[in-house]
Amino acid sequence: MHSSQAVIHLSNLKFNLLQIRKKIGQRKFMAVVKADAYGHGAVKVVKYLDTLEKNKPDFYAVSFPSEALELRQSGIRSRIIVFDPFEKENAHICLKHNLIATVFSKRHIDILKTAFSNYSNHNKKIKIHIKVDTGMNRLGVNYDKAYDYIKYVSGIKEFIIDGIYTHFAEADSKNKNFTFLQLSRFNKLIIKLRTEKIKPGLLHAANSAGVLDLPETYLDMVRCGISLYGYYPSNETSESIKLKPVMSVRSIVTTVKEIEKGETVSYGRKFTATKRTKIVSVPVGYADGYRRGLSNKAKALINGKVFNQVGIVTMDRTMFDVGNSNIKVGDKVILIGKDRNKSITAWDLAKAVNTIPYEITCGITKRLPRIYV
Ligand SMILES: Cc1ncc(COP(=O)(O)O)c(C=O)c1O
Hints:
Blueprint (H helix, E strand, L loop, with lengths): L4 E4 L1 H15 L3 E5 L1 H5 L3 H8 L9 E4 L2 H9 L6 E3 L8 H6 L3 E4 L2 H13 L7 E8 L7 E2 H12 L4 E7 L11 H19 L6 E3 L3 H6 L7 E4 L22 E6 L2 E5 L4 E2 L5 E2 L4 E6 L16 E4 L2 E6 L7 E6 L8 E8 L2 E3 L1 H7 L4 H7 L6 E3 L1
Parallel strand pairs: 1-21, 2-3, 2-10, 3-4, 4-5, 5-6, 6-7, 6-8, 8-9
Antiparallel strand pairs: 1-11, 11-19, 12-15, 13-14, 15-18, 16-17, 16-19, 17-18, 19-20
The protein binds pyridoxal-5'-phosphate (PLP).
C-alpha cells in the first residue's frame, strides 16, 4: 500500500446529500459527478449514492461521453445526463448506453438523428435536455433564440424533450442581480413554451450556490457538485446548510532530520531555519496534486498539532517544520482533513494558492489511492 492516500468519507457524502435533500424538499436532485466526481472517484461515489434508496440522486451528470461510459461499464444503470453535446464519433455511445444528451444547435440534432438511424438496436426515442444560455456565454442556445429552437426540436419524432436547463454565471456572488436576470430570461422562455403548448420536461438551473441561497431557482430539479463533496462554492454564499468535507488526504512521516539555525530546506533554498529545529518529510508532492504554489504556505496536522510546511514542495515530497516536537518516522500526517479538534480543508489550501476547493479536490491525482471508508 502506498503510504499516502485520499480517503473518501462516504458517511459525509450521505450527510451532505441529506442536507441538500432537506433543503430542496420534493424537487429532484442531480448529482454532478463529472471530473471523476470532483476527484472523489465517480464509479465508487455513484455506486454508493445508488444504495441510498429513496434519497438516491434522481440523475447523475458528467461532462463527456467517456465519463458516462466509465459509469455504464462498471454496471451503473441510473439516469446519466452528459453536459457536453455528442459528436459524430461518439454519438453511438448515447444510444448504446441509454444516456441523456444535451443539445443546443441543429448540428447536435443532426448528429443524434444520424446515429439513431444507423443504430440497429434502438427501440426507444433519444432523451434530450436542451441547454439554454441565459448569460454564462459558454454552452447553450441563446435565450432569445431558444423558443424557435425548442419548437423545432419538439417536432422531431426521434427525440423526447426530457428537460430544459440553464447554468448560472455567478450565483455564488453576494450580489445576485445577474442570477435573477438569468432566471427571469429562463422563466420567460418557459412561460412562452407553455403558452404554445410545448412541453419542456424537467426544468433545472440551480447549482450548489443556488441551493444555498436562492430557493426561487430550484424549479423541478437542482444540480449539485461541490456541496455534495462538502464545500461551499465561495466565501460569499450563505452557509444555509451544514456540509462536511468528503475527501481527506493523509500520509506519514518518512524522515526526521535536525537542522541548525541558518540551514535551508529544499530546492532554491526558500526556507531558512531561524533556530535549531526538526524537519520532517512526507511522501506527497505536486505530482499528487499537492500544489507547488503551496510552498511555505500550507500546514499539516501531525499527532493532532498544526505544523508549517517549509521550503519548496517537490514532485514527490514535502517538508514540514516540527520544531522540537516528538514526531517520529511513521507518524500519521493529515494534509487535508481532521485530527482531534483541528482541521485543514480544501478551502485552506485553495486560499493559499488563490483558487477554489473544486480545483484542489479535482487536482488530487490518481497516484494517491482512493480509500473509501
Ligand atoms: C452545468 C453544470 N451544472 C451544475 C454544476 C455544479 O456546480 P457546483 O459544483 O457549483 O454545484 C456544474 C459544475 O460546474 C455545471 O457545469
